[in-house]
Amino acid sequence: MTFRYLPTTEEDKKEMLDFLGVSSVDELFSDIPEEVRFQGMMKLDEALSEPDLVKFMSGLANKNANFTTHVNFLGAGTYQHYAPSTVNHMLLRGEFFTAYTPYQPEISQGELQAIFEFQTMVCELTGMEVANSSMYDGFTSMAEAAMMAAGHKGKKRVVVSKAVHPETRHVLSTYAYGQEVEVVEVDYTNEGVTDLDSLKVALQNDTAAVLVQYPNFFGSVEDLRALEEIVHAAGALLIVSANPVALGLLEAPGKLGADIVVGDMQPFGIPVSFGGPHCGYFATTSKLMRKMPGRIVGQTKDEDGKRGFVLTLQAREQHIRREKATSNICSNQALLALASSIALTGLGKQGVQEMAKMNVQKAYYAKQELAKVNGVEAVFEAPFFNEFVVKLPVSVSEANKVLLSKGIIGGYDLELAYPELYGHMLIAVTELRTKDEIDQLVKELEAIAHA
Amino acid sequence: MRNDKEKELIFEMSKPGRVAYSLPKNDVPEVDLSQLLPEHLTRKEAAELPEVSELQLVRHYTELSRRNHGIDNGFYPLGSCTMKYNPKVNEDMARLAGFAQVHPYQPEESVQGALELLYNLQGELAEITGMDAVTLQPAAGAAGEWTGLLLIRAYHESRGEKRTKVIVPNSAHGTNPASATIAGLETVTIPSDDRGLVDIEALRQAVGPDTAALMLTNPNTLGLFEEDIVEMAKIVHDAGGKLYYDGANANAILGIARPGDMGFDVVHLNLHKTFTGPHGGGGPGSGPVGVKKDLIPFLPKPMVAKKEDGSFTLDYNIPASIGRVKGFYGNFGILVRSYSYIRTMGPDGLLQVSENAVLNANYMMRKLAVAFELPFDRVCKHEFVLSGVRQKKQGVRTLDMAKRLLDFGYHPPTIYFPLIVEECLMIEPTETEAKETLDEFIEVLLQIARECEETPEIVQEAPHTTVVKRLDEATAARKPILRYQSDKAEK
Q: How far, in whole angstroms, is CA B406 from its chain's centroid?
């Protein structure tokens, strides 16, 4: 069979084999011991033609409810937002799309400049001094931040709020197992924010860092100013995971004393895509710059004095430092960082603020309307951004089954991660939800509550 | 070709009042935001983001793309990176609404197609590598290494053994020792012998009761197959250790030799290399990990499983699991692309991939050996290394030759890696390049070798045609400028 990705013809092959003085390709594998040579054909499905492939893959895709077939109110760490059409068109340019790590800066100035601009945008949003070129996702980015803090402080203990995304805490505990760092969790209050009194108690032991989320997993806005005082008084670093869309409206964590700000840029220009690939970001202070994980782009000049960009501070990285590197990260999420840069350029200074405000307005409307429903209770009274929690008289998984049949993807079932929160649904409302859609959700939940 | 103008930053193009977006109207009753959020948590100064029109945006990124080189532009023989063609149809598949517009927390019954795809891919990768089970969660190769080492550590601990040493050949990728460290293990480096293979006696000396694992790339980073692999596996297993396969070079062995059959216990694959995930300027990657039976209990959760009724589910019931290594279920969009690729090639296509990749590499190696030092004169696999020591005697370094290649529109090979070869050039052509392309590149590299003898300054001063000349990396690291500051902000 002839494959469209394989240009070597029989004639080519013959010429090359003749030149090499061997009679068959098989001779080129003579160094592989016979006992480990694979015999026969791998048991894989047969090759599909392009039209058959499209049909087959579309068949799988069509089995999934999605945002074009259903109205979505799920968030909980990854969100459906508006992305300008330009994002996809620009990032699909082969020069970006099919390049690798910009190790040869003279022919990678486009990628390097785009990442330099990305780093600038991350700094602007977070209020931090420096940012890297990306991490795998917001979850691993926070875990890496915790490990960096432990290394920097020389203390093998971090404290994390239970109002931080459960998957962040799971990933953190895996990293902590590897590096033998103790992870202590502190509870949340009836308001749905980190319990400051419990935090003070937890900080009585020597601690490298405190990890909080802003807004937190329940959608509530943590009071970073109050947290900062407590954390720094105990000599620990404050690590904040922030939803970048919220930073269009909320005070930048850097202005409130955060030492490391991490998160995921997914809301800006990156599809939810069943959970990835997304784009972790990582920002910190100049003081901690040389402890950062990951690739960093810096500005410099060429031999003629012209501005140019290069990968820099590489003495931190695995290909130079090997076992002494600050992290093992190599491939990152460069293409997604580009997507976010393009989305942030499209939305711009004004659009980011407008989008953030609209998220609050719509989420507030939804919460208010749901609170009016008999049997539905609005819980957690702290200020919130685009997510909030309501308590239903039935289990969320049951409610979601009904909602799905009505064309609605319902909110996140908090009981999955917090056994004490039976019937608690975390609902996300972004700028893409209309009043009609929200009213429809209210109506359906009312019916469920009264059934 | 050389453009003397500096490219403006997007921030330098901005003008208040210009936009490149279109948000829907707010159709709910407006509430005064100061009633909803406390003053001290409300932003005072807007983030200084760009303000440009849509066409300005398009021109900016188009211009940036023109200052970048990808596989779509030309040959990219970057060793160990497997810069093969990234098929266009895969992009269409990943963008189907049923994949791209699906939430990871949707009820399982509403994502059966996505779970089926993951289940099938787990099985196909297990077959390709000869392993018993595969997790798709790790985000990239290095994340796969770390995951695999944690699995090995958890396995030993479950048997009440404290094994802390990871043996790594000196030809290994830098991620290997770095991953060992963050998995809480120590690296023991062993030398290569004059064949370019692991020094088997050194391995025998290195193993012991503290050996957790041997990490090996096979073929190794010199492009050579570790032909003593069966004996090496026995040495490590006899000492109670496990064998870890770094799959960065898996493009050489598809359907030819499987890590599982060579004796490896854990394998990671780089889907963005062998299985055509887009390189994307350095990511996203995807680093699935395959294991043999005795390591299955420790796999990250969730795994994708098939129920008796034929439906698919996320299995969180893995009590001895090392836990999560990434959010959600891995880089799903990349998994879709790789699955699309595997379904396009089938078993015979994948076999041809490796055969052609190895044929191309051997052809280039022998053609270039007339002008460059060939440190290991034996059959290579999908890549090979040359040394620029002859050229160095003429005052030209490998770095110079790499820069000179830029003038001809090529991405240079990997240089100065592996560390054990002086003035190293590591060339990986891949199977997706036509013979004409290989011949043209060979011709250019031979021309550069002649230039080294006749007009070395042309090479030493290269590149001559790129948008910037060589950049001052020392100053960049000494006085880092990592973000744009407007003149206004600086004052």
A: 22
